[in-house]
Structure formats: C-alpha cells, structure tokens
Specification:
There is one protein chain. This protein has three helices and two strands. With 98 residues, the protein is mainly alpha-helical. The relative contact order is 0.09.
Amino acid sequence: MTSLSRDDVAKLAGLARIEMSDEELVSLSNEFTVILDAVARVQEVAGADVVATSHPLPLRNVFRPDVVIPSLSPAEALSGAPAQEEQRFRVPQILGEE
C-alpha cells in the first residue's frame, strides 16, 4: 500500500500555493492513498505483454480527396458586405484601440 502522509500533502499544497486546514490535509491524505492504491493495482495488471493504447478500438481518420475548386474573388466575397475597406470586411471597433 502506497500512501502520502499529512506532511507530504502539506508540502504539495505549499508547492501549489494552496492553503489547507489540518482537516483538509488529513482528508486529502486518505484520498491520495485510495488513488495511489488504484494506480498500483492497474500497474500490476498491465504487464509487458499488454500493448499500451490510448483507445480500446483502432482509430482511423476519414479524409476527403483534396480537390482544388474555384473560389470567390475578393470583389465577389465583399459584394454583400455593408462596409468594406482595403478588400476586407469593415466592422465596428469593439476594443477602443486603434
């Protein structure tokens, strides 16, 4: 059984700059013990003959063919814009900066 003492948890909390009461340190120490025991059990099961995976089923990405097709010219793209400037959409300023 692997466990962290109250002092170990207090040191970790200090490194993380988290202020904790004595009750919280004791409680978290017990929770860490449960978590570390669970991880130890998983490590026992995962032997050298078990292949590491990130997903239980193989994944494959579905790609469509990359086909070049004509697109809109800047004038066509901006034809319905209420305001434009230098071949770009002109929008109201929102940050108050120039």
